[in-house]
Amino acid sequence: MPYETYKLLHVVGLLLLFLGMGGQLLGADSERGRAPRGTAILHAVGLLVMLVGGFGMMARLGIQWPWPGWLIAKRGVWLTIGALPVVVRRQLIPHGLAWLVAVVLGGLAAWLAISKPF
Ligand code: HEM
After folding, report:
1. CB-based contact 49:16 (threshold 8 Å)
2. What is the pLDDT of residues 99-117, one digit of tens each?
3. How far apart are CA 88 and CA 95, in angstroms?
4. Residues 55-81: tens digit of each pLDDT
5. Cα 95-98-103 angle, rounded to 5 deg
6. pTM over 0.85
């Protein structure tokens, strides 16, 4: 598959991830304290599709180990965003803060990919 297709997968995965995460954060704040199961599935599928797109782009760009700093940092962001709904459900951080954390992490990962600062 060409680089552009992997990039499209990466961006579609990102959309699914944030759609699911929005639902998860809303659900965690609801009376039931839980979000509909579909939001967890969207979140998980988004994480996976992003990863497939990311690995595919790495292959097309010829990125091999040792990975550049910006890519390792993006992995860290991906893992943190992946764990965020669980962190909120366990009330380890306040709900309101979780929304801000999600947006800042997403913006950070996009900036890392676009600017490649290190
Ligand atoms: C939540 C976490 C992530 C977000 C928000 C994110 C976002 C983005 C965005 C917006 C781009 C396009 C940048 C551009 O147009 O130049 C991009 C590119 C890329 N991402 Fe991610 N990404 C994330 C996680 C990952 C992960 C986990 C990997 C590795 C498996 C990865 C690998 C890449 C690669 C290789 C590129 C292409 C860079 C280039 O074309 O020079 N990303 N990412």
Report:
1. yes
2. 999 999 999 999 999 999 9
3. 6
4. 999 999 999 999 999 999 999 999 999
5. 145
6. yes
Domain that residue 107 falls in: 3-115
Q: Taking Cα atoms as reference points, which of 47, 53, 45, 42 lies closest to residue 20?
A: 42
Q: Which residues line ligand 1 (CB under 6 A)?
A: 10, 14, 50-51, 54-55, 57-58, 61, 71, 74-75, 77-78, 81, 106, 109-110, 113-114
Q: Distance between CA 81 and CA 2 in Å, rounded?
A: 27
The H or E element spanning position 93 is none
Considering its fold, how many domains does the chain have in total?
1
